[in-house]
């Protein structure tokens, strides 16, 4: 990552947005595609409007992030315990 921020045109739920990011455009497009897919799947599954589905999708993604963070913390603790056991 070079730190230079670039404008990247994206499309989510049929609406265009311009994002500014220092991440590579391919990565930003990957993130946007995942977000768009999650939003569309949520809207179809719940038969809600795009706006209502967006709230539900954000809650679902936040749940996934928090569970992933908790799992990472658990694995780090486990790794630290294993390192300590091998020192003995």
Question: What does this entry show, briefly?
Answer:
The protein has 88 residues and is α+β, with helices and mostly antiparallel strands. The protein has 2 helices and 2 strands; from the N terminus they run E-E-H-H.
Word description of this protein:
With 88 residues, the chain is an alpha+beta fold. The protein has one domain. The chain is built from two helices and two strands. A hairpin with a 2-residue loop joins strand 1 and strand 2 (15-21). Helix 1 crosses helix 2 (50-87). The mean pLDDT is 93.
Strand and helix layout:
Layout: E1 6-12, E2 15-21, H1 25-46, H2 50-87
Antiparallel strand pairs: 1-2
Q: Report the uncertain regions.
A: none
Order of helices and strands: EEHH
Count of alpha/pi helices: 2
Question: Quick one: biggest sheet?
Answer: 2 strands, antiparallel
| Number of distinct beta strands | 2
Please give the domain count: 1
* Terminus-to-terminus distance: 40 Å
**Beta content:** 15-25%
Output the structural class: alpha+beta
The Rg value, from CA coordinates, equals 19 Å
- What is the residue-averaged pLDDT? 93
Shape category? flat
Q: Describe the oligomeric state of these chains in a short phrase.
A: single chain
Percentage of residues in helical conformation: 55-70%
Strand order of the largest sheet: 1-2
Which labels suit this protein?
88 residues, two-stranded antiparallel ribbon, 2 helices, 68% helix
């Amino acid at each position: 990552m070079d730190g230079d921020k670039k404008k990247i045109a994206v499309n989510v739920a049929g609406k265009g947005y311009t994002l500014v990011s220092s991440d590579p455009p391919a990565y930003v497009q990957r993130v946007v595609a995942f977000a768009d897919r999650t939003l569309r799947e949520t809207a179809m599954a719940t038969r809600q409007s795009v706006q209502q589905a967006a709230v539900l999708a954000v809650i679902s993604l936040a749940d996934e992030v928090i569970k992933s963070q908790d799992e990472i913390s658990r694995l780090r603790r486990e790794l630290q315990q294993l390192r300590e056991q091998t020192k003995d």
